[in-house]
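Translate sequence into C-alpha cells.
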Amino acid sequence: MLSNTTIHRAIMKNNFAKYLIRFFTEICLDNVDELLYHKS
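Result follows.
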C-alpha cells in the first residue's frame, strides 16, 4: 500500500513537472514569436 501510494505520488509529480515545463515552454515560444514579429 505504501509503495503504491509512493509510486502514484512520484508519477503525479512527474506529470505535473512535465505540464509546467510544457506550459512555460509554450509561453516562452509565444513571447519569442511576438518579439521576432515586432522586430521584423
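Note: The chain is about 95% helix and 0% strand.
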